[in-house]
Amino acid sequence: MSSKIYDVIVVGAGLSGLQTAYNVQQAGLSCIVLEARNRVGGKTWSVPLANGKGTVDIGAAWTNDTNQSHIYALTQKFGIQLLQQNTDGNCIFQDKDGETHTFPYGTSPKFTEANVTDLERIRDMIHDLSVEYGSRTGSTEDYDQMSLEQFVIAKGGSQKTIEMIRIWSRVMLGVEATELSAQYFIEYNGKGGGLKTLRSDQKGGGQYLRFRKGTQSIALNLATLLRPKSVHLSQPVTSITDTPSLVTVTTSIGLTFKSKKIILSIPTPLYQDITFSPPLSGDKLTVTTSTTLGYYSKIILCYNSPWWTSLPSGLNCCGLVISYQTPACVLRDTSMAIDGQYSLTCFITGQPGVEWSKLPQHERRSQILSQVYRLFAATQQTTEQKDEVKELVYHPVEVFEQEWTKEEFSKGAPCPVMGPGVLSSVGSKLAEKVGNMFFVGTETSDVWAGYMEGAVRSGVRGAREVVESLGGGRSVAKL
Question: What are the binding positions for substrate in this chain (predicted)?
Answer without folding.
Answer: 347
